[in-house]
Amino acid sequence: MDPINNGEEETSKKEISRCSIDVHKVAPPPQRSSFEKLKSRLKETFFPDDPLRQFKGQPSKRKWILAAQYAFPILQWGPNYSLSHFKSDVVSGLTIASLAIPQGISYAKLANLPPIVGLYSSFVPPLVYAVLGSSRDVAVGPVSIASLILGSMLSQQVSPAKDPLLFLQLGFSSTFFAGLTQASLGFLRLGFIIDYLSEATLVGFMAGAAIIVSLQQLKSLLGITHFTKQMGILPVLSSVFHRTTESMKRPKLFWVSAGMPLASVILSTIIVFALKAQNHGIDVVRILYIGKLEEGLNPPSWNMLHFRGEYLGLVIKTGLVTGIISLTEGIAVGRTFAALKSYRVDGNKEMMAIGIMNIIGSSTSCYVTTGSFSRSAVNHNAGAKTAVSNVVMSVTVMVTLLLLMPLFRFTPNVVLGAIIVTAVLGLIDLPAARRIWRIDKFDFLVMLASFFGVIFVSVQLGLAIAVGMSIFRMLLQMTRPTTMVLGNIPGTNLYTNLHHYKDAVSVPGFLILSIQAPINFANANYLKERIMRWMADYEADHITHHHQLQGIKQHSTTSLHYVILDMSCVSALDTTGVTLFKDLKKALECKGVELVLVNPIGEVIEKLERAESEAAGSIILRADLVYLTTAEAVAQLSSAINLKMMM
Amino acid sequence: MDPINNGEEETSKKEISRCSIDVHKVAPPPQRSSFEKLKSRLKETFFPDDPLRQFKGQPSKRKWILAAQYAFPILQWGPNYSLSHFKSDVVSGLTIASLAIPQGISYAKLANLPPIVGLYSSFVPPLVYAVLGSSRDVAVGPVSIASLILGSMLSQQVSPAKDPLLFLQLGFSSTFFAGLTQASLGFLRLGFIIDYLSEATLVGFMAGAAIIVSLQQLKSLLGITHFTKQMGILPVLSSVFHRTTESMKRPKLFWVSAGMPLASVILSTIIVFALKAQNHGIDVVRILYIGKLEEGLNPPSWNMLHFRGEYLGLVIKTGLVTGIISLTEGIAVGRTFAALKSYRVDGNKEMMAIGIMNIIGSSTSCYVTTGSFSRSAVNHNAGAKTAVSNVVMSVTVMVTLLLLMPLFRFTPNVVLGAIIVTAVLGLIDLPAARRIWRIDKFDFLVMLASFFGVIFVSVQLGLAIAVGMSIFRMLLQMTRPTTMVLGNIPGTNLYTNLHHYKDAVSVPGFLILSIQAPINFANANYLKERIMRWMADYEADHITHHHQLQGIKQHSTTSLHYVILDMSCVSALDTTGVTLFKDLKKALECKGVELVLVNPIGEVIEKLERAESEAAGSIILRADLVYLTTAEAVAQLSSAINLKMMM
């Protein structure tokens, strides 16, 4: 394909292109074997961040060091860890500990697990993460969402009140499978799966979950006895939303939000202790010592994991959902603060870290943990430098476990309930909702879907619906791709969207379309229909136009001679797509119109060539019907039209 | 946003752009309300072919006529129907009748229905289609695929041998629901759903179905008694595939393929009749007169339809699958010949026609019918001009029903079996398979999936798997969109794919990327990773380059100053996509690199503006960081770089 370069004709095209045009060849695509293509495709799919880049061209000894550092990020920052670092890490560590202890107890209650498990879970996992995790700001521990999901999903089949030991075992087992899910997602480089939980989905989901939790807690707070979601929801919602607005601001002055919970716990505990209130009907925490749970540090729990039996399905399902949701939170937190301090967090590696953390946790009496939004923010604001702040926190929790446990006997439940509610209400992100509404209406719909899905249907289904909607929209975009009509900006070589740029004018004799998506089975038929319609529009316009001009222009020049398809954006083509071009070619020939391609990418050229070598038909890739730019195509072809007219 | 237009500086950019550049504004998008957007979006989704175009600006009387013609295409060609038309329609009508009669009987057997139902189904539906259908070449009647699916799906729950009457009723009921499905798909303008059965899927599916049918028939042909698919399949496949190649050629000399079946039926019937062979153990057709089926024309059957009871689910499922598959064949046939003779077929209207045809059919003792590939081809080649050829065929069948039925008592089954096998083997399209393999390897996989799915799993699941794979691939394309690095072709304003065009060179100080897909939740994270990686590559290249040149270039000019994103192909943006730009902006600022956008479409501009009006952050749409073309951006900004360097 080598367009004839004909200089004379172009000089007459001044009105179309101001500066003279010489035609450039559309180069044949570089030769690559199917295997090479497959390889690069797989690389893009699974290693978009090219994690092994740093190893390239390094001496083998260095490679080993890098590998070790890659596996254990602690080796990266460990060596040059300074005293000043340590100081700020201690401060932030103690700060998040003061949050982690009350929240740990509360979230464990939320998951219908013995409160002490919440403390266990704030002791071991942080240590593991400090060694494996690559984020410097994430504060690890139990989180409200995961606790809620775990509790509610398991409660569907087992009553935590009737059979607490079994429930505890299932909790640990689910944690194991959650960890397994997370680790394998990371190991298989399938991290992108969590991207399908879009921002809209999560905003709606969190809010919905928050509502449910607060209602459950308000039940105990307000001491309501018979209280079903449906009946309670409408009256309570308003008040809830009212109180949200304050709790949105609070995170700003984080010292308060950091101090408050512990303060209230201590205060209330002292009061109860002093007044012996627990004997006067104030409901206080019972640190249940079920099974092997005793005072002191985490007892082993691997012998409590269920790998068979009737509940295997339940724990696997629970583990899957909890794992993915908590993973989403953890990764999001990591990415957020990494962006803030501009260091990189390898998503897939982070998933492995969190996964291993939970697998180990499940055999040391911990339930699902991940990076917590709220505590990480506090951690960051308190000036955390490295994962050492997690270690400090975990040590503080250890001390609590060893010495202070007995005191918690006097902590009133109502305080914990309050802590949970204030914590989860922070999950209702109204500004985000407003932003989503303003930017993208459909995303807002998705958000509502997951919000109401979670509240009125179920955690899993709510998410499923929202994700399904998002995917459906993508498919629709693919099925109905944009086709732009391009027009020339007089006195230039520019061709821009005719319906967006007022000063762009359509070139008589040409219909110039830009197709904005890969062409495949889902949209080939549509594109044919649509192009035909654009042609009909063109005819209509120019016939009326013709009438207006009282036949000053002769119809032959204004009538359609060429349909130019700007293929720059057609990033892929499948067999059905190839067929489209054949059909289109045929359909146009019947109308005496030529099909012209502009700037097709390598893959497209290749596939069209193959198709032609197959079937002897009208050739699409004819040299004089393929150009690199629209300007060149128009320049060349309009001179061709003029020649036709002269004859 | 109004880039400063500075003429002097550009004159120094000769090496980058030969003909002088003046900068054009990126126009703000035309104001459109959300409602207008929704409206046009819906129009594109459901009325891409703009069926009401012809009504525009017509006098109301004319509108009524057009409406009538739209509803009943017969009114379009009826008035100017000539004798010459009639002649050729009679010829072609008789030709397809000679195919329809034996095939009708055979396919009815294939569907485990009484053979006479096959003749009924070649009588009423063609008449209905002649009135409603808009294709001039389609020959309507029972088809092998639909018959196979109907038979096999119903047989899963009801034995045609044990309870033939019930089976017949279920057959009619399924036909009703098939018709309902088809009509409503058309009425709701959801025709595009059948596009999701891609060419690859269908080629594989047809071939698989053909194999199953032939095996079933060979069973009776070869008189094998105990014969399961799995055991028989491998030995038989080869011979089957061998015989295909001939049966591929046959359609060419269509008179043979048209005459053969009837000839063989008549001949064999006469022989059997003469030799009284039926008394000597030759198995002959039994026209079962179950229920109301008697000699003569179609008896009513609406009283046989099941709208409740235990089998409702079965018939609905069967109707859905059969309906969609037969619809696919019918529409494909219509489109093919419409393209050949260059007249339009309105897909959705055609669906309504086929749907109504089947609904009426279901209450006149007909089972699922549609436009048949093979017979339509014969019809076309025999010179059919209008749907009258269908009428002629139907009349011929009527005569047969009234007079010739008794003779069929002597037609040997083996002949019908042979007819079926030869017919269905024509469905194995090896050249298509080869073409798919050459053009697109993944499509070939899809084809294999549906082929083996149908053979070894089930009709529904085989299809489901294939469609699932095709959709998964689209999602993957969306999740991992192409990002091209653009380079300048020296002495021009052209910027083309650096890795495709050898003569393109990268512009020092700039990284120019073209993003080839809508940006949304599924790919935002990937794009960030990928862009960061391109930047790392740039740095790497230019540092080595720098060393090679022994520091002749000073590093400051070669180091990265601007990342230019060519947004021409970003046809949509969601909230997550907006966030990407914020993050990217931030990430680049840390490296002292500016983010430049080129030619963003209206929607993108709009959403970014909204996002900025929301959050006070670093502005993305800064006047001097948005350009209409890459050339202009480079020209302006490289002068900016030079200025920086001088200071």
Automatic annotation (TrEMBL), chains A, B:
The chain crosses the membrane at residues 193-215, 253-275, 311-334, 387-408, 414-432, 444-472, 505-526. The lineage of its organism: Eukaryota, Viridiplantae, Streptophyta, Embryophyta, Tracheophyta. It comes from Linum tenue. The keyword Endoplasmic reticulum does not apply. InterPro entries: S04_transporter_CS, SLC26A/SulP_dom, SLC26A/SulP_fam, STAS_dom, STAS_dom_sf. GO terms for cellular component: membrane. One of its GO terms (molecular function) is secondary active sulfate transmembrane transporter activity. Keywords: Membrane, Transmembrane, Transmembrane helix. SUPFAM superfamilies: SpoIIaa-like. This is STAS domain-containing protein. The keyword Translocase does not apply.
